[in-house]
């Protein structure tokens, strides 16, 4: 098959995407497919072979049989590119428009899970306008979350803009820092649980990998530095948890994937406090570098990167054909 691999993008996770896409291109080629590399520049232009692309609704993308949008964050993982690919009328890997945008927004994602009583840390949404006009009231409301609190831009990833705040002094700075990235911020109660990640693969009958445990080696929590610098973290597979908790993690990973309507792949992240398993977030296009948990967890399950990417492409094509034949997914 001819597979267009999208790399870069407009978000602050541009560089991470370049690394992820290089890994995916190699795996897709190793699986025997023809790779059509497409770079999305920070400014938004789509470039192939040094030439800007012009796209036509219904016109596909470079004659590709499938597109692998290896993009993280806004304008890539949030349903916008997925909507564009729908309009181009081409098959693509991963979640569709709604699941992509729903999972990109930490506030909406948590509300959807809360409606199904899925265990999570306590959290509150803060809108920038409110913070600017009534800071004292906002500080008061956030007090119920205790200290420390995690302050995050609602629609970003890779730990960009996230801060751990201990009290009033650094709470203000944390909020201002997060609002520099997004006008919607989520404040969360701190969890001292084990960080566990679980990879999911499939469409209507998804499978969960063995969960991995994140051990942070640089710094105190899993920030950008710990995620992407050499020796910043260690992934322990399987996570050092009792079998019953491992089973809960895997069940909750699949349940969450299905509940939000994902397709193809996702990595579902948890905090595990004793035998309590709390969902933290779901990434519809998780990191795909050589050290990333998503491919590593499948490799541990006996699925090497080439086979993994081959399956992901097949799942994208399967979904596209089913939808175009009138079956919703
Ligand atoms: N409520 C929390 N309690 C403890 N640590 C947290 C909490 N929220 C986030 N963290 C830490 O911050 C990291 C990044 O947060 P996360 O919500 O996963 O954002 P991102 O989408 O940027 O990965 C987590 O992996 C964890 O180390
Ligand atoms: Mg995360």
Word description of this protein:
- By secondary structure, the protein is of the alpha+beta class.
- The chain has eleven helices and 15 strands.
- The protein has helices at 14-30, 80-88, 97-104, 106-115, 128-133, 135-142, 168-179, 224-228, 243-259, 293-300, 305-324, and strands at 2-8, 34-40, 46-48, 51-52, 66-69, 123-127, 149-153, 163-165, 184-189, 194-202, 207-208, 212-216, 233-236, 264-273, 276-283.
- Strands 10, 11, 12, 13, 14 and 15 form a six-stranded antiparallel beta sheet that branches. It has a five-stranded mixed beta sheet with strand order 4-3-2-1-5, with helices on both faces. A four-stranded antiparallel beta sheet has the order 6-9-7-8, with helices on both faces.
- A hairpin with a 4-residue loop joins strand 10 (194-202) and strand 11 (207-208).
- Helix 1 crosses helix 11.
- The protein starts with a strand and ends in a 5-residue tail after the last helix.
- The mean pLDDT is 96.
- Bound molecules: adenosine-5'-diphosphate and magnesium ion (MG).
- Magnesium ion (MG) binds at residues 269, 281.
Order of helices and strands: EHEEEEHHHEHHEEHEEEEHEHEEHH
Low-confidence stretches: none
* Strand fraction: 15-25%
| Main sheet specs | 6 strands, antiparallel
What is the CA-atom radius of gyration, in angstroms?
20 Å
- The coarse overall form would be globular
Layout of SSEs?
Elements: E1 2-8, H1 14-30, E2 34-40, E3 46-48, E4 51-52, E5 66-69, H2 80-88, H3 97-104, H4 106-115, E6 123-127, H5 128-133, H6 135-142, E7 149-153, E8 163-165, H7 168-179, E9 184-189, E10 194-202, E11 207-208, E12 212-216, H8 224-228, E13 233-236, H9 243-259, E14 264-273, E15 276-283, H10 293-300, H11 305-324
């Amino acid at each position: 098959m001819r597979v267009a691999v999208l790399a870069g993008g407009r978000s602050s996770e541009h560089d991470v995407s370049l690394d992820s896409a290089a890994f995916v291109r190699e795996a897709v080629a190793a699986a025997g497919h023809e790779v059509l590399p497409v770079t999305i520049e920070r400014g938004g232009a789509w470039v192939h072979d040094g030439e800007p692309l012009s796209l036509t609704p219904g016109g596909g993308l470079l004659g590709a049989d499938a597109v692998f949008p290896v993009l993280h964050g806004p304008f890539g993982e949030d349903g916008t590119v997925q909507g564009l690919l729908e309009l181009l009328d081409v098959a693509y890997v991963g979640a569709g428009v709604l699941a992509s945008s729903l999972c990109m927004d930490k506030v909406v994602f948590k509300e959807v899970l809360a409606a199904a009583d899925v265990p999570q840390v306590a959290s509150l949404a803060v809108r920038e306008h409110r913070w600017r006009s009534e800071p004292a009231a906002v500080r008061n409301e956030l007090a119920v979350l205790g200290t420390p609190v995690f302050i995050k831009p609602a629609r970003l990833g890779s730990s960009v803009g996230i801060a751990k705040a201990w009290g009033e002094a650094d709470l203000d700075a944390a909020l201002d820092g997060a609002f520099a990235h997004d006008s919607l911020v989520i404040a969360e109660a701190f969890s001292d649980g084990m960080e566990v990640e679980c990879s999911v693969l499939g469409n209507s009958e998804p499978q969960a990998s063995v969960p991995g445990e994140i051990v942070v080696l640089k710094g105190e929590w899993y920030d950008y530095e710990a995620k992407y610098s050499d020796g910043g973290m260690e992934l322990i597979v399987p996570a050092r948890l009792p079998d019953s908790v491992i089973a809960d993690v895997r069940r909750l990973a699949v349940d969450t994937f299905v509940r939000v309507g994902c397709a193809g792949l996702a990595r579902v992240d948890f905090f595990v406090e004793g035998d309590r398993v709390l969902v933290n977030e779901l990434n519809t296009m998780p990191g795909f570098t050589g050290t990333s948990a998503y491919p590593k967890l499948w490799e541990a399950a006996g699925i090497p990167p080439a086979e993994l990417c081959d399956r992901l492409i097949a799942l994208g094509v399967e979904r596209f054909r089913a939808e175009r034949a009138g079956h919703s997914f």
